[in-house]
Amino acid sequence: MSIQEISLNDLNPTEFIEAQCRLISKQVGKSKAVNALSGGVDSSVTTLLAHRALEDRLLTYFIDNGLMREGEPEFVVSGMKQLGVQVELVDARQEFFSALKGKTDPEEKRQAITDTFYKNVFGRLVKESGAAYLLQGTIYTDVEETVAGIKRQHNILAQLGIDTKAAYGYTVIEPLIRLRKSGVRAIGKALGMPKDMYHRVPFPGPALGARVIGEATPKRIALVRKATVVVEDVLSAIDAFQYMAILHEDRVTGIRDGKREYGFQIEIRCWDSRDAVTASPTQISFELLRKMADRITSEVPGVVSVTYNITPKPPSTIEAL
Ligand code: XMP
Q1: Which ligand 1 atom sits closest to the C-alpha of 155?
Q2: Which residues contact 179 (CB under 8 A, 6 or more apart)?
Q3: Staple partner for 304: which of 35, 131, 192, 263, CB 3.0–4.6 Å?
């Protein structure tokens, strides 16, 4: 891999910010850049960095792909507004669900999300705005796992030999590509971001699409979204790297109100990790685990089984897909 990592120890946030602002401004020149904000730590830091470098030459979009968490589009747009960044919300829910229809293979689902995002939605936005560049928050870990063939992270393009100019009509700028998550957080802090934004729990590009095993239909996404509300509500009180709810494809026999119910299974994962390269399951108290199980089985219709993953990464990965 030809990209040189900058470790947290070697990172000087002030110098990094100044250097990246100069580079971004020089590359974009008098043109415009479109910015893909997902609301995660990496894309939020990229947004503030690029906003500082480009001001009104930057057009920031938040794509509602239908796979977001409860209330996420409104939360992200208003959070950025408070930091002085105007964000346009684009409703692309139908487009993503059509692309995902009938797909059950994890890598095919990731590919469908990537194509819809870069080719269709951003291809169109870039063309309409007359921009020549797309800014995005790819980080070192994303490249590493994709190049190693573990998972195709949705935001990896050039490193897979994709010429974005030829394929999509724009050049991609990735200012954070030499950093890992801890470095990205240090940059967010130095940019004056509130802690709840630079310290936000990581969330994957393919969003809840990566947390539904099997077909990601609007109904199944709505189900895992409801379970996610419970898991995030209960686990935000503990200091873990990341936590999530996953909807399984297999159903199991349960019993409710004295009747058989062939229902859904939700798996909870919660991780301790420094940089997502390796991770271990958090030792959650049995009381908290039971609390989540009780709430999920009563608040999420049709769920009759809740499990907790106790496998470290490796051999597990953090997300299920
Ligand atoms: P895995 O599941 O590979 O996840 O152990 C490592 C970290 O990366 C996040 N993740 C993604 N982030 N695009 C992203 O921007 C993706 O396609 C993607 N897939 C996984 C995951 O949430 C974890 O923090």
Answers
A1: 13
A2: 5, 6, 11, 139, 140, 187
A3: 263
DSSP 289: H
Helix (H) or strand (E) holding 224: helix 218-235
Question: Which is the closest atom of ligand 1 to the Cα of 150?
Answer: 3
Domains in the chain with CATH codes: 13-198 (3.40.50.620), 212-308 (3.30.300.10)
Question: How far apart are the C-alpha atoms of 104 and 314, rounded to whole Å?
Answer: 23
Half-sphere exposure of 94 (CA within 13 A, CB side): 1
Angle at 84 between CA 78 and CA 90, to 5 degrees: 50
CA-CA distance, 14 to 20, in Å (whole number)? 10
Longest dimension (CA), the chain: 69
Q: Is the CB of 204 under 6 A from ligand 1?
A: yes
Looking from the CA of residue 202, the nearest atom of ligand 1 is 24
CA of 26 to the centre of ligand 1 (A): 31
Which residues fall within 8 angstroms of residue 23, CB to CB, at 6 or more apart?
175
Q: Which amino acid is at 229?
A: V
How do the pLDDT tens digits run along the chain, 321 residues long?
A: 589 999 999 999 999 999 999 999 999 999 999 999 999 999 999 999 999 999 999 999 999 999 999 999 999 999 999 999 999 999 999 999 999 999 999 999 999 999 999 999 999 999 899 999 999 999 998 888 887 777 777 677 877 778 888 888 899 999 999 999 999 999 999 999 999 999 999 998 899 999 999 999 999 999 999 999 999 999 999 999 999 999 999 999 999 999 999 999 999 999 999 889 999 999 999 999 999 999 999 999 999 999 999 999 999 999 999
For residues 243 and 268, is the Cβ–Cβ distance under 8 A?
Answer: yes
